[in-house]
Amino acid sequence: MSDAKKFLYLNRKAPYGTIYALESLEVVLIGAAFEQQVSLAFVDDGVYQLMAGQNTKGSGFKNFSNTYKALGDYDVRNLYVEKESLDERGLSVDDLMPITHDTDDEEDLPSIMVVSRAEMAKVMSEQDVVLSF
Amino acid sequence: MKFGIVVNEGPYTHQASDTAYNFTKAALEKGHEIIRVFFYHDGVNNATRLTVPPQDDRNLQKLWSELAEAHKLDMVVCIAAAQRRGILDENEAKRQGKDADNIAPAFRISGLGQLIDAGIKADRLVTFGD
User: Fold this and answer.
1) Catalytic residue positions of B?
2) Å from B56 to nearest chain A CA?
3) Domain of B48: which CATH number?
4) Rounded to an integer, what distance in angstroms lies between the CA atom of residue B83 and that of residue B93?
5) d(CA A29, CA B113)
6) Would you place residue B17 in the very low, low, confident or very high pLDDT band (cuts 50, 70, 90)?
7) Domain A6-132 falls in which CATH fold?
8) Measured between beta carbons, which residues in chain B are less than 8 angstroms from residue A129?
9) Segment 46-105 of chain A within 8 Å of chain B by CB
């Protein structure tokens, strides 16, 4: 793992109005096989991707929100959510899906970390590769 | 420097493909290495050979194909994104029971692993698109 790169998937768009969220998730799942250090970030309307209780009935879109809950099984454990983006949309972490992962020692650890805009900038600056969707 | 290029928008609606093309060309002229150009999202639409833009405008697909042939570029179209949008090579057309293929010269269809691989191998992975 020493030569693994830090990959950040930056999600900026709502889940269903465009295809970016779904195709971002497809890269994350494929990328998980490459044993890199993977994090996801959610800013702007991207925070809607993690909303609990998504219902796409009537729109004809595939509801892929359960896939986020499975990310832990792919060793994707760090989901950074920007606090200002939540605040600006009248949301809090309680509105988001519970997403957890297991480690060798513990089970059901929370994967979502709410961070400030300044902290998010720091997270981004520490990456080797940022893929923006 | 080793660059990987990601093109996320189709031709003409957005400038992304033009800018990616110009960046790639300029980087090559400066002696940099382009390890791969990866087309994702609507970017896969750059790879159809069936576009017929007006004669007094640029032909982006042709520009990409010519640049790739001149510099032996590896231009990869994401298979999942391509299938959604009707971009097929001969093998895929056959496999999916379609009556035609449309991939342009010098493009090849492959998986998203090629995008991750470009991120791993490149010094800089540069994304063009919204």
Assistant:
1) 78
2) 32
3) 3.40.1260.10
4) 10
5) 10
6) very high
7) Hypothetical Protein Ychn; Chain: A, (3.40.1260)
8) 119-120, 125
9) none
Q: Two tokens at A122?
A: 């720091």
Q: Is the pTM of this model over 0.90?
A: yes
Q: What angle do CA B92, B41, A23 make, to 5 degrees?
A: 95
The answer to whether position B100 is within a domain reads: yes
Size of interface A-B (CB pairs under 8 A): 43
Q: For every residue of B60-113, which 3-state class applies, written as one string?
A: HHHHHHHHHHHHCCCEEEEHHHHHHHCCCCHHHHHHCCCCCCCECCCEEEECCH
Convert the pLDDT of each residue in B74-119 to its tens digit.
999 999 999 999 999 999 999 999 999 999 999 999 999 999 999 9
What pLDDT score does A122 carry? Answer: 98
- Of the pLDDT bands very low, low, confident and very high (cuts 50, 70, 90), residue A2 is low
B129 within a domain of the structure (yes/no):
no
**Mean of all residue pLDDT scores within chain B:** 97
Range of the domain at B70: 2-124
Chain B interface mutation, best of A2, A13, A27, highest count of B Cβ atoms under 10 Å: A27
Number of domain units in chain B? 1
Mutation target for A interface from B120, B124, B125: give the one with most A CBs within 10 A: B120
Give chain B's end-to-end CA distance (angstroms, integer).
25
Domain ranges of chain A: 6-132
